[in-house]
Design brief:
Elements (H helix, E strand, L loop, with lengths): L7 E6 L14 H16 L3 E6 L7 H6 L4 H25 L4 E5 L8 E2 L2 H9 L3 E5 L9 H11 L4 E6 L4 E2 L11 E2 L1 E2 L1 H6 L7 H9 L4 E5 L5 H6 L6 E3 L1
Parallel strand pairs: 1-2, 1-6, 2-5, 3-4, 3-5, 6-10, 9-11
Antiparallel strand pairs: 7-8, 10-11
Helix pairs in contact: 1-3, 5-7
Length: 237
């Protein structure tokens, strides 16, 4: 069996990725595909933490356009990430994995509060830890939550699973002439004004030397390839 390149990873999934071919909500087939791929890593001894967005259910920024207060909208978005977190937890447990869902907003009946030491202990025991409710604060994205949690738990890398197979010179879904980068430095991303994560998240990673790999999570087997060190996606380091 291939050896993992990383001991502890933080997997950042977008809420949109859970929609599969639907226009909103959660596609159970996509959920189980992710679950099986995560299980392979856990069985290999990789410690896995997950941060998931809420864009398949609700987006705080969209709410502003519909007249909802930005802070209220962001709180609604945080609750959407908890719905997704519960669905991922359910899928992983259906596959026989041990999990913990931790929330940045207190909701004792459904999740543990985020406690850094507890999260690290769960990971050491082989449990998959899902971090929900973003950072618990408005005006911060789930990308920032992923960067923050990765630094707190001392993850070796952030794996940003998207619908695109890396970072391009332009949006490949809109510009057919866009070319892909294999590797980039943090400085190059800033100089080229590339959209990897929002600036707060990106700056946190840069200041704390946390590498980011952007890859296509929807292509089966890609997650394992990334973790075993194959050249998939784009590495920012």
């Amino acid at each position: 069996m291939s050896q993992s390149k990383y001991k502890r990873i933080l997997l950042k999934l977008s809420g949109e990725a859970l929609m599969g071919s639907q226009n909103y909500g959660i596609d159970s087939a996509r959920l189980m595909q992710y679950g099986k791929e995560i299980k392979e890593l856990v069985e290999m001894g990789v410690e896995v933490a997950i941060v998931i967005g809420g864009g398949n259910i609700y987006r705080g920024i969209q709410a502003e356009k519909s007249g909802i207060d930005r802070v209220q909208g962001d709180h609604m978005g945080m609750l959407a990430t908890m719905i997704n977190g519960l669905s991922v937890q359910s899928a992983l447990e259906a596959l026989g994995m041990k999990t913990r869902l931790q929330s940045a907003i207190k909701m004792e009946q459904i999740a543990e509060p985020f406690i850094r030491r507890k999260a690290v202990r769960h990971l050491e025991k082989g449990r998959v830890v899902i971090f929900g409710a973003g950072t618990g604060n408005p005006y911060f994205t789930t990308d920032t939550a992923a960067s923050l949690r990765a630094i707190e738990i001392e993850a070796d890398v952030i794996l940003k699973g998207t619908r695109v197979d890396g970072i391009y010179t332009a949006d490949p879904e809109k510009d057919p002439t866009a070319t892909k980068f294999d590797t980039l430095t943090f400085q190059e991303v800033i100089a080229k004004d590339l959209n990897v994560m929002d600036m707060t998240a990106f700056t946190l990673c840069r200041e704390n030397n946390v590498p980011i790999i952007v890859f296509d999570m929807n292509k089966q087997g890609n997650l394992m390839k990334v973790v075993t060190g194959e050249k998939v996606g784009t590495l920012v380091a």
